[in-house]
Automatic annotation (TrEMBL):
Organism, as annotated: Pseudomonas haemolytica
Classification via NCBIfam families: sigma70-ECF
Record-given protein name: Sigma-70 family RNA polymerase sigma factor
Annotated family: Belongs to the sigma-70 factor family. ECF subfamily.
Ranges of residues in domain RNA polymerase sigma factor 70 region 4 type: 109-160
Length: 173
């Protein structure tokens, strides 16, 4: 065994129970807590811990777990909104469970992409795509010129193209 796997094994053995308890209290679901505890330690494998002391290690683990909880809650909100909209559709047009999972994952990725955009770019993009506003109205509403709206749209569409390529598995991360 090398030093990294030995230190990881020690970290896991020392803090897994504590982290699992923290996540159970936060999520009120032992299965979700177990999943997120697992995901937290997977992140540690990909981004090794530099903290040497016990308190620093727990703080680092809690920070990663907190971010994963936020992602989890955001994903649940999106999934609930999607399922609520599906409930309004006739039973004959319902997607299969596999299609539902793909759609929810895509919605989550789009939401994450939108969250990474600067606020004015995101606002302009949503006004154009969801509300169908012309650039002139968007410019007025966002408080910029029409040329800037065109730049914002180009920036947002570039992010959409990158996301599409990632979802199609064309880009290596």
């Amino acid at each position: 065994m090398d030093i990294v796997s030995t230190s990881f094994t020690h970290l896991y053995g020392t803090h897994h129970g504590w982290l699992l308890g923290l996540l159970r209290r936060r999520l009120n679901d032992r299965w979700d807590a177990a999943d997120l505890a697992h995901d937290t330690f997977i992140r540690i494998l990909n981004r090794p811990l530099t903290e040497a002391d016990h308190v620093g290690q727990r703080s680092y683990l809690a920070t990663i777990a907190r971010g994963l909880c936020i992602d989890h809650w955001r994903r649940r909100q999106l999934e609930k909104a999607w399922l609520d909209s599906l409930a309004q559709r006739p039973q004959t047009t319902q997607p299969s469970p596999e299609q539902r999972a793909i759609i929810v994952e895509t919605l989550y990725e789009v939401d994450a992409m939108l969250a990474r955009l600067p606020s004015k770019v995101r606002e302009a993009f949503l006004l154009a795509q969801l509300h169908g506003l012309p650039y002139k109205q968007i410019a007025t509403q966002v408080g910029v010129g029409e040329r800037m709206v065109k730049k914002y749209m180009a920036q947002a569409l570039l992010h959409c193209a990158i996301l599409e390529a990632e979802l199609d598995g064309m880009l290596v991360q």
